[in-house]
Amino acid sequence: MTSRALPRDELLRRAAAIRLVLLDVDGVLTDGRLYYGADGEALKAFDVKDGHGIVLLRDHVDFGVVSGRPGKASEKRLQELRVKHLVFGERDKLAGYAKLAHLGVPDGAVAYMGDDVNDVPLLEKVGLAAAPADAREEARAVAHLVTAAPGGRGAVRELCDLILRAKGL
Protein backbone atom coordinates (compact mmCIF):
# COMPACT_ATOMS: atom_id res chain seq x y z
CA MET A 1 0.00 0.00 0.00
CA THR A 2 1.14 3.51 -0.69
CA SER A 3 1.24 6.08 2.08
CA ARG A 4 -0.36 9.53 2.03
CA ALA A 5 1.90 10.75 4.86
CA LEU A 6 2.71 14.41 4.33
CA PRO A 7 5.84 16.46 4.97
CA ARG A 8 5.68 18.57 8.15
CA ASP A 9 5.09 21.89 6.36
CA GLU A 10 2.12 20.48 4.42
CA LEU A 11 0.72 18.88 7.60
CA LEU A 12 0.88 22.25 9.33
CA ARG A 13 -0.76 24.01 6.36
CA ARG A 14 -3.67 21.57 6.41
CA ALA A 15 -3.92 21.63 10.20
CA ALA A 16 -4.15 25.44 10.20
CA ALA A 17 -7.31 25.21 8.05
CA ILE A 18 -9.15 22.79 10.36
CA ARG A 19 -12.51 23.94 11.75
CA LEU A 20 -13.97 20.55 12.72
CA VAL A 21 -12.19 17.57 14.30
CA LEU A 22 -14.02 14.26 14.05
CA LEU A 23 -12.93 11.16 15.94
CA ASP A 24 -13.78 7.50 16.01
CA VAL A 25 -14.20 6.23 19.57
CA ASP A 26 -13.07 2.60 19.86
CA GLY A 27 -9.40 2.36 18.92
CA VAL A 28 -8.96 6.15 18.80
CA LEU A 29 -10.33 7.73 21.99
CA THR A 30 -10.02 4.31 23.66
CA ASP A 31 -7.55 1.49 23.19
CA GLY A 32 -10.31 -0.51 21.54
CA ARG A 33 -10.82 -2.99 24.35
CA LEU A 34 -14.31 -3.41 25.77
CA TYR A 35 -14.92 -4.33 29.40
CA TYR A 36 -18.27 -5.64 30.61
CA GLY A 37 -19.57 -5.23 34.15
CA ALA A 38 -21.55 -7.84 36.06
CA ASP A 39 -24.82 -6.41 34.73
CA GLY A 40 -23.59 -6.45 31.12
CA GLU A 41 -22.81 -2.74 30.96
CA ALA A 42 -19.93 -1.82 28.63
CA LEU A 43 -17.02 0.04 30.21
CA LYS A 44 -14.27 1.89 28.36
CA ALA A 45 -11.06 3.64 29.42
CA PHE A 46 -10.24 7.13 28.13
CA ASP A 47 -6.79 8.72 28.45
CA VAL A 48 -6.70 12.09 30.24
CA LYS A 49 -3.95 13.30 27.88
CA ASP A 50 -6.31 12.94 24.94
CA GLY A 51 -9.04 14.70 26.91
CA HIS A 52 -6.74 17.56 27.80
CA GLY A 53 -5.81 17.98 24.13
CA ILE A 54 -9.50 18.34 23.32
CA VAL A 55 -9.95 20.85 26.17
CA LEU A 56 -7.04 22.95 24.87
CA LEU A 57 -8.42 23.00 21.33
CA ARG A 58 -12.22 22.95 21.76
CA ASP A 59 -12.63 26.73 22.00
CA HIS A 60 -10.97 27.10 18.58
CA VAL A 61 -12.56 24.27 16.55
CA ASP A 62 -15.67 22.11 16.84
CA PHE A 63 -15.39 18.45 17.83
CA GLY A 64 -17.51 15.48 16.89
CA VAL A 65 -17.60 11.72 16.92
CA VAL A 66 -18.48 9.31 14.13
CA SER A 67 -18.57 5.86 15.71
CA GLY A 68 -19.73 2.48 14.50
CA ARG A 69 -20.88 1.34 17.93
CA PRO A 70 -23.77 2.59 20.04
CA GLY A 71 -22.63 5.39 22.33
CA LYS A 72 -24.02 4.79 25.84
CA ALA A 73 -20.63 3.96 27.39
CA SER A 74 -18.95 6.93 25.71
CA GLU A 75 -21.56 9.66 26.08
CA LYS A 76 -20.63 10.67 29.65
CA ARG A 77 -16.98 11.29 28.79
CA LEU A 78 -17.86 13.13 25.60
CA GLN A 79 -20.30 15.34 27.50
CA GLU A 80 -17.57 16.18 30.03
CA LEU A 81 -15.31 17.19 27.13
CA ARG A 82 -18.13 19.26 25.54
CA VAL A 83 -17.90 17.34 22.26
CA LYS A 84 -20.85 18.81 20.35
CA HIS A 85 -21.58 16.54 17.41
CA LEU A 86 -22.24 12.87 18.14
CA VAL A 87 -23.00 10.20 15.54
CA PHE A 88 -23.14 6.71 17.04
CA GLY A 89 -24.03 3.31 15.64
CA GLU A 90 -22.96 4.21 12.10
CA ARG A 91 -20.51 1.65 10.69
CA ASP A 92 -20.65 3.42 7.30
CA LYS A 93 -18.51 6.41 8.25
CA LEU A 94 -19.40 8.38 5.11
CA ALA A 95 -23.09 8.06 6.00
CA GLY A 96 -22.25 9.21 9.54
CA TYR A 97 -20.30 12.16 8.14
CA ALA A 98 -23.26 13.05 5.90
CA LYS A 99 -25.37 13.48 9.06
CA LEU A 100 -23.08 16.42 9.92
CA ALA A 101 -23.43 18.14 6.53
CA HIS A 102 -25.76 20.73 8.09
CA LEU A 103 -22.69 22.19 9.83
CA GLY A 104 -21.52 23.53 6.46
CA VAL A 105 -17.84 22.75 7.03
CA PRO A 106 -16.03 21.97 3.76
CA ASP A 107 -14.13 18.67 3.59
CA GLY A 108 -10.79 20.50 3.48
CA ALA A 109 -11.50 22.06 6.89
CA VAL A 110 -12.26 18.69 8.54
CA ALA A 111 -9.80 16.44 10.35
CA TYR A 112 -10.74 12.83 11.07
CA MET A 113 -8.91 10.19 13.08
CA GLY A 114 -9.87 6.57 12.47
CA ASP A 115 -8.22 3.23 13.03
CA ASP A 116 -9.88 0.51 10.96
CA VAL A 117 -11.00 -0.46 7.46
CA ASN A 118 -14.45 1.11 7.80
CA ASP A 119 -12.75 4.47 8.51
CA VAL A 120 -10.82 4.47 5.21
CA PRO A 121 -13.49 6.14 3.00
CA LEU A 122 -13.85 9.05 5.44
CA LEU A 123 -10.08 9.31 5.92
CA GLU A 124 -9.76 9.64 2.13
CA LYS A 125 -12.39 12.42 2.00
CA VAL A 126 -11.25 14.90 4.66
CA GLY A 127 -8.56 17.56 4.53
CA LEU A 128 -6.49 16.08 7.36
CA ALA A 129 -6.63 12.32 7.86
CA ALA A 130 -5.00 10.84 10.96
CA ALA A 131 -4.54 7.35 12.36
CA PRO A 132 -3.11 6.08 15.65
CA ALA A 133 0.15 4.14 15.59
CA ASP A 134 -1.67 0.85 16.16
CA ALA A 135 -4.36 1.41 13.52
CA ARG A 136 -4.96 -1.21 10.85
CA GLU A 137 -2.52 -0.99 7.96
CA GLU A 138 -5.33 0.08 5.62
CA ALA A 139 -6.08 3.16 7.76
CA ARG A 140 -2.40 4.06 8.25
CA ALA A 141 -1.85 3.82 4.48
CA VAL A 142 -4.38 6.58 3.71
CA ALA A 143 -3.58 8.82 6.69
CA HIS A 144 -1.70 12.09 6.26
CA LEU A 145 -0.56 11.73 9.88
CA VAL A 146 0.19 8.50 11.74
CA THR A 147 0.78 9.32 15.39
CA ALA A 148 3.58 7.92 17.51
CA ALA A 149 1.05 7.03 20.23
CA PRO A 150 -1.49 4.22 19.95
CA GLY A 151 -5.24 4.70 20.15
CA GLY A 152 -6.55 5.58 23.60
CA ARG A 153 -3.03 6.40 24.77
CA GLY A 154 -2.27 9.89 23.45
CA ALA A 155 -2.97 9.67 19.70
CA VAL A 156 -5.76 12.26 19.87
CA ARG A 157 -3.49 14.55 21.90
CA GLU A 158 -0.90 14.45 19.10
CA LEU A 159 -3.51 15.51 16.56
CA CYS A 160 -4.76 18.29 18.84
CA ASP A 161 -1.20 19.52 19.48
CA LEU A 162 -0.52 19.62 15.73
CA ILE A 163 -3.61 21.74 15.10
CA LEU A 164 -2.81 24.03 18.05
CA ARG A 165 0.72 24.60 16.72
CA ALA A 166 -0.49 25.16 13.18
CA LYS A 167 -2.99 27.77 14.36
CA GLY A 168 -0.37 29.49 16.54
CA LEU A 169 -2.27 28.75 19.76
Automatic annotation (TrEMBL):
Which keywords does UniProt give here?
Hydrolase, Magnesium, Metal-binding
Cofactor(s) recorded for this entry are: Mg(2+)
Pfam families on file: Hydrolase_3
| Name of the molecule in the record | 3-deoxy-D-manno-octulosonate 8-phosphate phosphatase KdsC
Task: Write down the superkingdom of origin.
Answer: Bacteria
Q: Which InterPro entries match?
A: CMP-NeuNAc_synthase (IPR050793), HAD-like_sf (IPR036412), HAD_sf (IPR023214), KdsC_fam (IPR010023)
Q: How does it assemble?
A: Homotetramer.
Which residue ranges run through the membrane?
none
Q: Which NCBIfam families is this protein grouped with?
A: KdsC-phosphatas
Stretches assigned to coiled coil: none
Family, per entry: Belongs to the KdsC family.
